[in-house]
Amino acid sequence: MIRRIALHCAACGLAGLVAIVFGQLARAADPEQRVARLGFVDPNSPSTALRGVDGFWRRLRDLGWIKGQNLIVEERWADGRSDRLAPLIQEVLAHKVDVLFTYTTPAAVAAKKATTSTPIVDGLMGDPVGTGVAASLAHPGGNLTGLSLGWSEGIAGKWLELLQEMVPQVATVAVLMDPDRRISREQAKRLEAIAPTRHLKVHIIAVRGPEALDGAFEQAARTAQAVLVMDDPNLSTQRTRIVALAAKYRLANMHVMREYVDAGGLMAYVADVPAMFGRAADYVDKILKGTKPADLPIEEPTKYVLIVNLKTAKALGITIPESILLRADEVIR
Fold this sequence. Notes:
- By secondary structure, this protein is an alpha/beta fold.
- The protein folds into two domains: 36-150 and 273-295, Rossmann fold (3-Layer(aba) Sandwich); 153-272 and 304-332, Rossmann fold (3-Layer(aba) Sandwich), CATH 3.40.50.
- It has twelve helices and twelve strands.
- The strands form two sheets. A seven-stranded mixed beta sheet has the order 7-6-8-9-10-11-12, sandwiched between helices. The chain has a five-stranded parallel beta sheet with strand order 2-1-3-4-5, sandwiched between helices.
- Helix 8 links the parallel strand 8 and strand 9.
- The protein is elongated.
- The termini are far apart.
- Mean pLDDT is 89; it is low at 1-12 and 14-29.
């Protein structure tokens, strides 16, 4: 009798041990129960980060990844200086992160040079194939994937069209761009080709950094009635200064990032960046659950939005046409 009780207890103990082991294995296999390490390098500063980045963190929470619980984040900020990206990325990679998340083409290039093994998700690339960080959009290959702004040939014409519709008397548009950026050079060429078909002239002005802004706007004011500011990570921290210079010289201004309009710019026609950042979180989630970056195609935006600033229009003496107001996805009053 005693022997049967002992055997029964041993069997119960073994069953309990098996249950514990399998329970631990199940928890280890559940991505929400294990702790993941995410590297995050923002090309901007905390005060000038794109507002869409919040969508990335919200979506990660929705997917079950909670900072401080099952997600450790190694976070760094480049403060608008592209030269800081490479050392910050190296610093983050030293923490053996499971995935590195960043955005912009310079950040993608720096990350790709820094590692060929750690998975990389870039949420806002300009030209991943042209810059060599991906073999193709459909099959990026290697360890990097994410989303591209996808500035097609038609987007340049749309910027000019909207400027003309906003200010019909515009004859010349000054284009402020960094000639060292491939995507900006390509868009400048497209603008030069399209402008004559719209009976416009474009004046391309090189801006390689914040120190060139004052001179660039002085040139623009002498030759143009409007300015189109191409986005550049080295200028992203200068948004308030850029829109102030446009106001000083009373230039109608079009932007390719919505944050410039938030800072007081006149208008922007841009990809739905918050949606893109949310989608980037999906990519991070899939990689943390075992998908290889090479198996995730680089996506392009499916939606563009028009944002206009009524206060800025009034200050510039511009009456926004009803056609623009009806088409605007957002009107800042």
